[in-house]
Amino acid sequence: MAFYFVQFLTGLASAASLFLVASGLSIIFGVTRIVNFAHGAFYMLGAYMAFTLTERFSGALGFWGGIVVAALIVAAIGVLVEMVLLRRIYHAPELFQLLATFGLTLMVQDIVVLIWGPDDLLGRRAPGFRGAVDFFGQNIPSYDLFLIALSPVVLGVLWLLFQRTRWGVLVRAATQDRDMVAALGVNQKWLFTSVFALGVFLAALGGALQIPRDAVHHALDLRIIVEVFVVVVIGGLGSIIGAFVAAVLVSELNAFGILIFPKISIILVFLVMAVVLIVRPWGLFGKPEAAARRTPGLTVNPWRPLTSGERLMSLGALVLAAMLPLFAGNYALTVGSEIAIYVIFAASLHFLMSVGGLASFGHAAYFGLGAYGVAFLAKAAGLPMIVSLLLGPLLGLLGAAVFGFFAVQLSGVYFAMLTLAFAQIVWSIAFQWVAVTGGDNGILGVWPDKWAAGPASFYWLSLAIAALAVTVLRVIVFSPFGFALRATRDSPLRSEAIGINGKRVQWTAFVISGTVAGIGGALFAYLKGSVFPDSLGISLSVDALVMVLLGGVETVSGAVIGAIVFKAANIWLVSQTDLSKLVLGGFIVLMVVAFPKGIVGTLETIRNRWRSPDTKSALLASRIETAE
Amino acid sequence: MRRRHVLGAGLAIAVAGMAGSAMAQSEIKIGEINSYSLLPAFTEPYRKGWQLAVEEVNAAGGINGKKLVVISKDDGGKPADAQTAANELVSSENVAMLAGTFLSNIGLAVSDFANQKKVFFLAAEPLTDAITWSKGNRYTFRLRPSNYMQAAMLVEEAAKLPAKRWATIAPNYEYGQSAVAVFKKLMSEKRPDIQWVDEQWPPQGKIDAGPVVQAVAAANPEAILNVTFGADLVKLVREGNTRGLFKGRSVVSFLTGEPEYLDPLKDETPEGWIVTGYPWYDIKTPDHDKFLKAYQAKYNDYPRLGSIVGYQTIKAAAAILAKANSTDPEKLIAATEGLSMPSPFGEITFRKIDHQSTLGAYVGKTALKDGKGVMVNSVYRKGADYLPGDAEVAKLRPKE
Predict the structure, then answer these.
(1) Is residue B140 within 8 Å of B355, Cβ to Cβ?
(2) For residue A144, what is the nearest residue in chain B, using CA coordinates?
(3) pTM to 2 decimals?
(4) Is A13 near chain B, with CB under 8 Å?
(5) A440 contacts B104? CB cut-off 8 A
(6) CA of A99, closest CA in chain B: separation in Å?
(7) pLDDT tens string A572-611
C-alpha cells in the first residue's frame, strides 16, 4: 500500500513542472492565439540560466534567488521577443506565428551549445531538500514534496491574479473575446506583452526548478514542448485548472502505467489525448470556440485559376526543370528529386490546410505510411517498383480514411492536436513493432528498379509525379468539390444551409491529402532506399507546416514555392555550416518579418498593388485582392 | 508562376554541383558524416580526435605522398539527411570512402547506401550488431566494439556476482532492446539459476525517473542492468541515489565509464557499478601515452571516448588507403580484410569474416574521487576474445 501511495506522490511531483510550463502556454494561447512553439526553448533557457546563477552564488539564498532571477531574465527575453518579433505578425494569417517561434526554437538550440558548451550539465541540489523522507520503508525525495506543494500554490496565485485583479479581468475578457476587448479601448499591445511575459516566466521557472533533478542539455526543449501541448489540449485551451488536472492525469497514468506496461510511456500521453479529444472535443475544461466573427472574403482573398499566359509560363518552367539532367551532376539531381518529393508533400498538406482550413500537425503520418507501404510491398512481397509505387500510397489512404474520420469532427487547434496524436501513435507502432518494421533501424534495401535507378531517370520520375500531383490538386481546388470545401472552411453554417455535407467534404479532402502525401512518401522510400520511423515523426510534420506557411498559407501555389525554398535552403545550409540550425532559424525569422503573408502571398500583394491604380480604386483593391 | 522557381533552384544546385566536381590529384578525400548538431557532447571530442589524426597523418607524409583531406558533414540525427550527405560526398566531392556516424539507424542507412552505390564505408561508432551481422555487407566495416562484445565483457563480470534476481532499465529503442536481449541471453547461458524480475523501458531522452526507480525498487531485485546514458542516466542516478535504489544492490551498466557519460554525474557518481568505459587517467601504455600527450598538447583538454573513436577512425582509414594504394572500393576491401594496425588501445585487426575490428573496451568499477566519477580496477578487454566463433558468425551474416 505504501508503495502505491509513494508512486502516486512521485506522479504528482512529475506533474508539477509539467503544470508550470503548460499553464504558461495555455495563458499565452488563450489571449494572443499564438501557438508558441518556442515555449520549450524558454523552458530550456530557464534551466541553463538557473544553472549558471546557482553555480555562481552558493547558499540557500543563492540557489532560490538564482532560480527566480533566472526565470525573470528569461521573461525579459520573452518580452523582447514579443515586442521585436511577434508584434509585427499578429495580423498575419493564423499559425504564421508558429513559424516565427519555430525559427526561434531552432536558433536557441544552437545558441545554448555555443554559450554553455556541448556537455550535459549537472546542477546543484536544492539546499534543504537533498535527502528523502522515509514513508513506511519507501523513500520520497524531499524535493518532490516541495514540488508537490508548489504547484497548488502557483495554481492559487494564478487564480487570484485572474479573478481578483483588473489585469486578470482583462486577460479573461481577452481570452473570451479579443475583438470586443479591443473595441472597449483596452491597450492590447501591453496586455499581450504582459501575458507573454507571464507565460514565459512560468516556462522558465518550470525549467529552472528541474535542475536539482535533471541534467541541463540542449535537447530539453523538444523533450517538453510536445508533452506540454498535449497537456494544454487535454485540459482545454486557456484553462489553468484544466492544465493542472491534465498534468496530474498524464503524470499519474504514466507512474502507474509503467507498472503494468513498461513500454507504454512512449505513447501514453498521445493515447490519452486521442481518447479525450474524441470524447470531449474541447478538452476536459475547455469551452467550444465561438464562431469566428470575421467575414469571409475580406480576410481570405478569393482565388483564381492561372491565366493562360501563366499556364504557358508554368509549362515552360517545367520543361526547363526537366532539362536539369543535361547539365547537372548526380548530386544536384538527387537533391532535385528530394525537392520534388517535398513539393508533393507540402502541396498535399496545403490542400488540407489552406483549401480545407484544417491545419494538420501530424501530416508526416501519411507520408510515412506511404513509405512503409512501399517498403512492405517491395521487401516483403517482392513486388516490382511500378506496382509498389501504385499500391504503397494506399496505406497512406487507409490511414487518412481512418484517422481523418475522427479528426474532421474537430476544428482549429483541437484538430491539429488530434492529428498529431494519431501521427505519434503510428510513429510509435513503427518504432516499437521491431519484428515487422525493424524498429528505429528501419527497413533497408528499398532501391528502385533498374529503369529508374539512375539519378536522372529518378529525377524525371519525381518531377513528373510532382507536376501531376500539383496539377491534380489545383484542378480539384477549382472544381465544384473544391468550392464546397472552401465554403465549409469559410463558413460552416452557411455552407450547411445550402446543403453541403461539411464533415463528409472535409473527410474526403483529408483522404485525398493523405493519399497524395503517401505518394510523396512512396517516392521518398525509393529515393533513400530505406524507410525509418523518422519519416512519420513530428519534425517532418513541422517541416511540412513550415513549407506551407513560408510559401503563404492563403495562396494557391505557396506550398510549391515554400517547399522549394525551405528544402533547398535546408540541404544547402546543413552541408555548408555546422550552425545550420542557427542560420536556418534566423532565415525563417527574417522571412517571417519580411514576408508576413508568406513568400507568394507577399509577392501577390505587391503585384496587386502595382496593378490596382489602372483597374480599380485603391480602396477596393486593397480589400479584394486575388491570390494566385 | 510556380515552376519558374523550380528552374531557379535547379540552376543554383547545378552550378554548385559543377564547382565541386573539380578534384585535385594530389590529395585523397575521406567523406565523414556524424550527428554533430544533435549529439555535440559526443561528437565534439570525436571531431577533435579525427582532426588530430589528420594532422598526424599529413605530418608523416600523407598517404603515399598524397595529402589526406577529410570533408565532414552533419546529419542532424536523421538517417535520410545522412544519405543526402553521403550522396553529396560521393557524387560531388568524389571521396575515396565514407566514414563516421554515431546512431545505429544512421550507420545502417549509410551502410545500405554504401552497399547500393558500391562505396567503401568505415562505421565509427554505431553499436548495433546488425551492421556487421544480420544486415552486414561487403562494403561496410565497423571500428567500435559492438553491443554483443560489450555485453559479453559485462556478462563475464556480472556472472561472478551472487545476485539471482535481476531487473533491467533500458531506453526504448533498438539499441536498448538489443543490449538487454544479448545480455539476458549470455547471462542466462552462464547462470541458469537467475531470474529476471522486472524490466523498465523509458523512452530515450524522456525518462520519468521517479516512477521508474520506484517500480524497479518494488520488484526488489538483487542486481540491476542499466543501458540508459546521457541525460537519462543523470536523472536515473539522481533519483536512484535519493531513493536509495542502489543501496545494497549490484549494478551493471553499459558505457557508463565513458567520460562523456560519467563526468556529468560529478559528485553524485554511484560507487561500485560494473561498467564499460574509458579511464584515460589510468591507462599506462606507450601507445596511449603518445596519443594522450598529443591530444592534450593540441587541445589543452582531456580526451573522451569519442576522441579515441574519431582518432582511430581516421588512422584506420589512412592505413587502409595506404595499403590499398588505390581508391578502388574492391581494392580497399581487400586491403582492409585482415589488416592489423596500432591504436591507442593496442593493436587491432579488421576481421575478414564479419568486417568487425577487434578494438576492445575497458571494464572496471565506478568510484568517487575528489568529487568526480572515475573508473577503478579497470582492465582492457580485447575485442577478439568476446566475439562468437567463426561458424556462428558465418550463420549470422547474409550470404553474398
Answers:
(1) yes
(2) B210
(3) 0.88
(4) yes
(5) yes
(6) 20
(7) 988 888 888 899 899 889 888 888 788 888 888 888 777 6
